Amino acid sequence: MSFSLTNKRAVLFDMDGVLYDSMPLHSKAWSMAMADFGFKMSPTDVYQHEGCTGAYTINWVCERDGKDAVSDEEIGRIYGRKTQYFMAMPPAQMMPGAYEVMQKAKASGLQIQVVTGSGQGGLIDRVQHDYQGFVTRRLMITAFDVKRGKPYPDPYLKGLEIGGISASEAVVIENAPLGIRSSVAAGIDTIAVNTGPLPDSMLLGEGPVMLCHSMSELADMWDTLY
Hints:
With 226 residues, the chain is an alpha/beta fold. It has helices at residues 23-36, 43-48, 54-64, 72-87, 98-107, 121-130, 154-163, 177-185, 200-204, 215-221, and strands spanning 10-13, 111-115, 140-141, 170-174, 189-193, 210-212.
């Protein structure tokens, strides 16, 4: 294995699909909300655009379907409906193996950060409780902290800025193709963890340094990366 964590100072975690097994819930909420406003959004569409802001995702659906762009007001209504559906669902479970990866990262002396495209306030608050001792709001980037979200590099560049580190000193753990595109564009080595239904090729095509199929697998092999 050519990739090494040697000389890394920080690990930047995505949230949905990495720290929480929340994507099936997001997929259902998106599909229902978009249907309410006359749009179709399949589970594959949701997973392909995971990590993007709600506005980016909604505009993509409109463009794909050849419909006129929606206003900011309508985007707010659609995303608000999606949030209502998501919050009415059972709480997402912590991703198996994620806590162990955080433990190993901290034991390795790495600074822990979270970079998410989520604007779900409840989950953003919860991650600080579930991963207490590892995650702090000061070292989190959310949908509220950048104007351009993933797949643009802005969220990860902002993560580097608030963490006081360079791209070469960081490693990202991502499960979404466009999230990987974002971190790679920021110049950061990225470990892909395919926790969803997409083929490996969709993640590998975005340029990660390696790919695992679960957070538990990454936890098991962590020590070999030094």
